[in-house]
Amino acid sequence: MAISSSGLAAFHAVAQAESFTKAARARNVSQPTLSAQVRALEEAYGVRLFDRVGRSVKLTPLGQSLFVITARLFAAEDEAEALLAGVRTLSRGHLRIAADSATHVMPALGRIRDRHPGLTFSLSIGNSSDVLGQLLDYAADVAVTAKQTSDPRIRSVRLSADRLVGFVRGDHAFADRSSVPIEAFVGQDVVLRERGSVTREVFELRLAEAGVRPGHLLEVQTREAVRDAVATGFGIGVIFGAEFRDGEGLARVEITGADLAVAEYAVCLEERRRIPLVRSFMEAVQEET
Known about the structure:
This is LysR family transcriptional regulator. It comes from Methylopila turkensis. The chain is α/β, with parallel strands linked by helices. β3 (about 95-100), α5 and β4 (about 120-125) form a beta-alpha-beta unit. Strands 3, 4, 5, 6, 7, 8, 9, 10, 11 and 12 form a ten-stranded mixed β-sheet that branches. It is about 40% helix and about 25% strand. It folds into three domains: about 5-65, Arc Repressor Mutant, subunit A (Orthogonal Bundle); about 95-160 and about 265-285, Periplasmic binding protein-like II (D-Maltodextrin-Binding Protein, domain 2); about 160-260, D-Maltodextrin-Binding Protein, domain 2 (3-Layer(aba) Sandwich).
């Protein structure tokens, strides 16, 4: 049985928009037409691709697996269209960026926007492992991450070198010290990103190498939450040096006696590097290096 291309396209649009209404608007078709195309695909194979609850839709496990495939399929179609059309200017388009921090990506986006004001952007923030996962799942066009990878599917450009630093609230015992040895973390409460973050991966490894056992560990989901937790008095925060901002009564503390060097990388899929939007981003970030 030959699979329906219109059915796949309709399925992909709904999965991407998470809504039949939004998908129909994006494809410039009526919602009944789009619904019929998806229903025909489901009935042809005797499967269910979406759970429909009121006006909301959610992918079933089978639908999630199919979405990974259609994302690759339509990404390749976009690349082929761009290649054959020989696009030389970027007068329109939408670039999806995944990053583990907005700090390292905003300058490049600003340059691209100034050169190509017709472009739009969406930025998703997550830990380094999630960011690479989005790229490999075709949920992002490009990414900025601190996680170095040797995966041959991924093209990587080093953006910057950095170092992990600590920071504390003004009433903390370390607040009046410009630096502390890593051994000083014994028994100290620490605020870190969740597992999958390079910050946490590197810092926990260095603590283990030094034989240091800290006190309580508070795990949070974003760097902004690390800052908020430290400001509330939950302990010592650890972040990239470039991400620390003065203010709110917080003091930066250098950590000595351990290799806390880290870096940021701009990455894209090797197979998609010639797409004009992707190429433009990778060129823009390299201007910083």
